[in-house]
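User: We ran a pulldown and think these components assemble together. Before we commit to crystallization trials, I'd like a predicted model of the whole complex to look at. Sequences follow.
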Amino acid sequence: MRTGRIVEVEAYGGPEDRASHARSGRTARNAAMWGPPGTAYVYRVYGMHDCLNVVTGPSGTASAILVRAVEPLAGLERVRAARVEHALAGRRAVRADPGAVVARLGRIPDARLASGPALVAAGFSVDRSDDGADLLDPAGSLHLEAAQGGEPPIIVTVGPRVGVAYAGAPWAGAALRFSAAGHESVSGGRGATARSSVAR
DNA sequence: AGTTGGATGGTCT
DNA sequence: GACCATCCAACTG
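Assistant: Here's a predicted model for the assembly, 200 residues in total across the polymer chains.
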């Protein structure tokens, strides 16, 4: 069993949101976005990375949040093993020298095993076969749970969404990215950078 | 420490 | 045929 705490998300709206996959209306790829709240929307980007979204708006509105980063809480070695498995299944160049990949992944700090949208999917073995899944079903192999409590509280930082400059104003700059301030597991390359960016 | 470019394929124009 | 809701290695300074 792998569990983790979501520490970074981005909000995407329906067809009116020029940065949303729903901007061109309903297609085969984004059909899950129009499902009921709690539906998983999993898409592939840049030809190799899968990303997990959770539908948030009512059926037919296509609102969803992208899960950008997770703090692994349990099953850490399973998460790490999934990262290795995913890497070895991927690029041909990687398969040529698997030892180096395994070594590199072995050095990743626990907190950074799922510190990016594609890393969340890799670490928790989410792929497009999960597209359309009901994340509110406690019996589902992939599902959301309420926080157990006892965790340090999160202070939320807001900012613009990543990688959507093409959308233009006001969508590109809209403050729709929400992350745990100073949290080690948020995306952004280096944990040190993420921490210092909120220092004061 | 910061920047650049390659990998890689589905989707939309 | 262009464009991506990305990641990482290999550069430069």
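Residues 190-200 of chain A have pLDDT under 50 and may be disordered. That may be worth checking against your pulldown data before setting up trials.

User: Thanks, that helps.
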